[in-house]
Specification:
mainly beta
């Protein structure tokens, strides 16, 4: 079964840094695009960053230049390095996998999320 387990969340001060990790299992990781999403209270879930199996990346405009997504296919891990954190970055951050099953069916899988709180 597909499993995504996030870790690394916590409380940080504005301007600080944090690295989130997502451990993936149950699918061919190297062939799957991986994403980070976040959701703040009262807000819709939004895309933070994505990375293809080949290493191509994309970022939401508000995160570009501050956040970096990376993957380690040998370890089935995806990371989100967050720098210059702002209070508005406070949210639950979710790891997401886009997995193809049964030849042509694509599914999105989600981790349970990890809380990031940016506050002084």
């Amino acid at each position: 079964q597909v499993q995504l387990v996030e870790s690394g969340g916590g409380l940080v001060q504005p301007g600080g840094s944090l690295r989130l990790s997502c451990a993936a299992s149950g699918f061919t990781f190297s062939n799957s695009a991986m994403n980070w999403y976040r959701q703040a209270p009262g807000k819709e879930r939004e895309l933070v960053a994505g990375i293809t199996g080949g290493g191509g990346t994309n970022y939401a405009d508000s995160m570009k230049g501050r956040f970096t997504i990376a993957r380690d296919n040998a370890k089935n891990m995806v990371y989100l390095q967050m720098n210059s954190l702002k209070p508005e970055d406070t949210a639950v951050y979710y790891c997401n996998a886009i997995v193809t099953r049964y030849s042509s069916f694509t599914f999105r899988y989600w981790g349970q999320g990890t809380q990031v709180t940016v506050s002084s």
